[in-house]
Amino acid sequence: MAHENKVVHSVNLDGEGLCVDVFQRPDGTYGFEEYRRDPEDPRGWYPVGFYGAQRFDSFEAAQRNALQQVAWLKDRL
User: Fold this and answer.
1) Angle 17-5-7 from CA coordinates, rounded to 5°
2) Do the domain assignments include residue 1?
3) CB 31 within 8 A of CB 25
4) Would you say residue 20 lies in a domain?
5) What pLDDT is attached to residue 25?
6) CA dihedral (25, 72, 68, 49) positive or negative
7) Sheet of 30-36: strands edge to edge?
8) Does residue 25 lie in a domain region?
9) pLDDT tens across 14-49, in order?
10) Number of domains in the chain
């Protein structure tokens, strides 16, 4: 099955080894996930925060929660 969530905002940590995506689901709710990418691993990005199941009614609520849960994100926004 194709991935149906739409990324609406993405923030990379310097070096592009970590990122946080805020996304919107087809049902209109929002979520976020923290991902990691290792240069020696050709598989690409994989989730490390496991926040993606949380649901928020707005982009702002998802982003606010991401800022509270992902320590490095505060310095990037």
Assistant:
1) 45
2) no
3) yes
4) yes
5) 96
6) positive
7) 6-12, 18-24, 30-36, 46-47
8) yes
9) 877 899 999 999 999 999 999 999 888 888 888 998
10) 1
